Automatic annotation (TrEMBL):
Keywords: Hydrolase, Magnesium, Metal-binding, Nucleus. Residues 1-130 form the Nudix hydrolase domain. This is Oxidized purine nucleoside triphosphate hydrolase. GO terms for cellular component: cytoplasm; nucleus. GO terms for biological process: DNA protection. It comes from Tenebrio molitor (Yellow mealworm beetle). The keyword Signal does not apply. It catalyses: O(6)-methyl-dGTP + H2O = O(6)-methyl-dGMP + diphosphate + H(+); 2-oxo-dATP + H2O = 2-oxo-dAMP + diphosphate + H(+); 8-oxo-dATP + H2O = 8-oxo-dAMP + diphosphate + H(+); 8-oxo-dGTP + H2O = 8-oxo-dGMP + diphosphate + H(+). CDD domains: NUDIX_MTH1_Nudt1 (cd03427).
Length: 165
């Protein structure tokens, strides 16, 4: 399946909590997620991650670390999307909601609202929360149904990125 869109998704962390936002529009509307969006033309993945965090929750990320990648095969769309996953535990400014993510809320790692998130989230969040390098591939038959998935942990990011290609 040809890769269509490339996205970023960033998780700010503090005291065993992660900042999530409720998406108010577009892809994933009504679901809690990290902060991110489409990589623009002539933009690096890391610059996209930094820009989206500032646009969507108002802070400047200073130690962004890419830890994984998820490839989504969307059977219903006959296309595949790739989402680059980052974590960040140092940032400047105060987090605030935006037009696209409102409200925002710090969730304890033990209290994440998986019932109001994309169905794939519980599969790879454990790796993200532990800052383990990982690669995942998820096949959706429709927006609510996962046909198959594979998640693998790696010792380095470069190896993790290979599986998603
Ligand atoms: C298909 O499954 C998905 N699961 C999860 N957990 N997250 C996903 C999935 N598909 C996309 N995402 C993430 C990737 C991005 O962080 C957002 C979607 O970004 P959006 O479409 O809002 O991108 P923007 O560039 O911000 O869009 P606008 O042009 O509308 O501002 O969800």
């Amino acid at each position: 399946m040809p890769v269509g869109k490339i996205f970023t998704l960033v998780f700010l962390k503090r005291n065993n909590s992660v900042l999530l936002g409720l998406k108010t529009r577009g892809l994933g509307e009504g679901l809690w997620n990290g902060f991110g969006g489409k990589v623009e033309e002539n933009e690096t993945v890391a610059n996209c991650a930094r820009r989206e965090v500032e646009e969507e929750c108002g802070v400047i990320a200073s130690d962004l670390k890419q830890i994984g990648v998820v490839r989504y095969d969307l059977d219903y769309d006959k296309s595949a999307d790739v989402v680059h996953i980052f974590t960040c535990s140092k940032f400047d400014g105060f987090e605030k909601p935006s037009e696209e993510m409102n409200p925002i809320k710090w969730y304890k790692y033990t209290d994440i609202p998986f019932e109001q998130m994309w169905p794939d989230a519980p599969k790879w969040y454990p790796f993200m929360l532990k800052d383990k390098y990982f690669s995942a591939r998820v096949i959706y038959t429709d927006k609510n149904t996962i046909k198959d998935s594979i998640i693998q942990e790696f010792g380095s990011l470069s190896n993790a990125l290979k599986l998603a290609q």
